[in-house]
């Protein structure tokens, strides 16, 4: 379970902040900064090509985690103590590496959890850009699962982990999750892993120095990020809502609902067909597509939000200060760092 949570947290960081090139030392150490500067002359051809895009470095100051977003009557099948969630180092540079550690996560002895998978939803709120909380998930499947960015559902985390292990040619970001799996026994778990991101190709596949998901005129992210560039990055709040997947009883209800949708669509199309000049083969092909289309709309807009609410087990809230330059230590002996 802690491993499932970590996947969503890491995907959140990746998709929200782009990024990344390994950083193996303390950015506040002058010797470290000298190493980074010297290393710039020895990078690969691909990295030099990316440098021409002049992507801006970003620094994150992780704040405290809390569980204030967990609804009061959530099913307490997994206990996560927010005080045991740690992101290191104290300042994370992108491009760079960071370590996520989640200690003493208690998985209860419940067949609903141990025999099931998990799914989650990622939500972001940029405190100084109101519209950012409303942007839609990018590149999700037709039924609303997967994708990257805000308001995304990750519908079967455990199966995704198994697929990474089974697929021997996994590359890039997904490769970093190889060897992870979901718990099968009750008890206490601790997760600790370092994640590094090496290039921008996941977001700029054509190398034109523009993030691919910002190039559509219909992209909600384009307007939101333009606002951020004008007023400064500020503070982002990430919420990761966790739930266990559908039980057999819920799956049966879902199948019943999908059958009702199919029957309704078939009746509608039979009525409309009387005025259509198409042959039987064309009609059946369209009918099959339209039935699946209507099922996907229901799954995406009604089923997933309901299932998340019904089976919620925890919600983790983490804040990050996002800086455009190297943060400095707080003055007058204060603990931590500041963007100012």
Q: Would you kindly provide a brief summary of this structure?
A:
By secondary structure, the chain is of the alpha+beta class.
Layout of helices and strands, plus pairs?
Layout: H1 2-17, H2 30-39, H3 45-51, E1 58-66, E2 78-79, E3 85-88, E4 92-94, E5 97-107, H4 111-114, E6 118-126, E7 152-154, H5 157-166, E8 187-196, H6 220-231, E9 234-244, H7 248-273, H8 280-311, E10 312-323, E11 328-329, E12 337-338
Antiparallel strand pairs: 1-4, 1-10, 2-5, 3-5, 5-8, 6-7, 6-9, 9-10, 11-12
Helix pairs in contact: 7-8
Q: How would you describe this structure to a colleague?
A:
The protein has helices at residues 2-17, 30-39, 45-51, 111-114, 157-166, 220-231, 248-273, 280-311; strands spanning 58-66, 78-79, 85-88, 92-94, 97-107, 118-126, 152-154, 187-196, 234-244, 312-323, 328-329, 337-338. It is of the alpha+beta class. The chain is built from eight helices and twelve strands. The strands form three sheets. The protein has a six-stranded antiparallel sheet with strand order 4-1-10-9-6-7. Strands 2, 3, 5 and 8 form a four-stranded antiparallel sheet that branches. Residues 1-25 and 39-50 have low confidence and may be disordered. The chain folds into two domains: 2-247 and 312-338, no CATH class; 249-299.
């Amino acid at each position: 379970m802690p491993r499932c949570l970590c996947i969503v947290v890491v995907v959140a960081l990746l998709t929200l902040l782009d990024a990344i090139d390994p950083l193996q030392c303390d950015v506040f150490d002058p010797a470290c900064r000298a190493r980074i500067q010297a290393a710039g002359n020895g990078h690969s051809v691909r990295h030099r090509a990316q440098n021409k895009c002049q992507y801006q470095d970003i620094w994150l100051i992780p704040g405290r985690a809390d569980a204030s977003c967990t609804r009061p009557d959530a099913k307490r099948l997994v206990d996560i103590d927010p005080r045991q969630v740690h992101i290191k180092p104290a300042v994370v540079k992108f491009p760079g590496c960071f370590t996520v550690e989640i200690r003493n996560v208690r998985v209860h002895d419940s067949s609903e959890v141990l025999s099931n998978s998990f799914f989650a939803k990622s939500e972001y709120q940029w405190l100084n850009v109101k519209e950012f909380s409303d942007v839609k998930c990018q590149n999700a499947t037709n039924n609303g699962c997967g994708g990257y960015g805000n308001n995304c559902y990750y519908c079967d985390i455990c199966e995704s982990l198994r697929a990474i292990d089974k697929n021997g040619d996994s590359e890039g970001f997904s490769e970093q999750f190889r060897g992870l799996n979901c718990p099968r026994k009750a008890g206490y778990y601790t997760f600790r892993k370092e994640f590094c991101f090496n290039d921008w190709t996941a977001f700029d596949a054509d190398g034109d120095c523009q993030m691919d998901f910002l190039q559509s005129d219909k992209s909600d992210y384009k307007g939101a990020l333009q606002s951020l560039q004008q007023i400064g990055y500020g503070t982002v709040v990430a919420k990761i809502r966790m739930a266990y997947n559908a039980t057999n009883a819920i799956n049966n209800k879902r199948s019943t609902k999908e059958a009702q949708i199919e029957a309704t669509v078939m009746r509608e199309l039979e009525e409309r067909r009387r005025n259509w000049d198409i042959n039987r083969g064309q009609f059946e092909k369209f009918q099959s597509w339209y039935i699946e289309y209507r099922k996907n709309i229901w799954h995406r807009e009604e089923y997933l939000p309901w299932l998340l609410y019904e089976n919620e087990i925890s919600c983790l809230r983490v804040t990050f200060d996002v800086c455009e330059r190297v943060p400095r230590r707080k003055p007058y002996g204060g603990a931590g760092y500041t963007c100012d």
